[in-house]
């Protein structure tokens, strides 16, 4: 037999009164608009608000001309081969590189120097692939938009293993051939 204290029996009887509920304002989760910001008084000559951080910026001189890579003019689209077969072959080659059945050096000719170096870095830190060669149907569809100044933007739907994926490429005409300068989705 247990003996209840008066406080415990009072709780069990249900006659306890709960503290009164009170409403609290919901905190604002969005930043204020520019016209809602409080006016800040600043010393003359010093910027206010976000511009304050710009005072720490500095100009960096251009690199010397002999170190800079020469800028090659873009080849117009009408002087380039058809973009569809080039894009299809490039996407297929990229899938084979990602699968580990083709060396990345075979992409050097078809990509810009910056993109090739970025691909090398990414593939260096990826786990070793299985080595299963993507089939010829791995490139499911290509959607190409060409501009007359020698640019083609491509969206490709691909099959990688049992999953579908998408790649986006930018081809630019350089020295009479297409070169991939941007790649996303791999």
CATH T-level fold name of the domain at 77-184: Nuclear Transport Factor 2, Chain: A
* Strand count: 4
- Give the mean pLDDT: 76
CATH class value of the domain at 77-184: Alpha Beta
Distance between the termini: 72 Å
Q: Can you walk through the features of this model?
A:
The model has no long low-confidence stretch (mean pLDDT 76). This protein has a domain at 77-184: Nuclear Transport Factor 2, Chain: A, CATH 3.10.450.50. The protein is 20% helix and 21% strand. By secondary structure, the protein is an alpha+beta fold. The protein starts with 5 loop residues before the first helix and ends with a strand. It has helices at residues 6-12, 83-99, 113-125; strands at 139-147, 151-160, 163-174, 177-184.
Task: Record the SSE blueprint.
Layout (H helix, E strand, L loop, with lengths): L5 H7 L70 H17 L13 H13 L13 E9 L3 E10 L2 E12 L2 E8 L2
Antiparallel strand pairs: 1-2, 2-3, 3-4
Which features does this protein show?
alpha+beta; Nuclear Transport Factor 2, Chain: A; 4-stranded antiparallel sheet; 4 strands
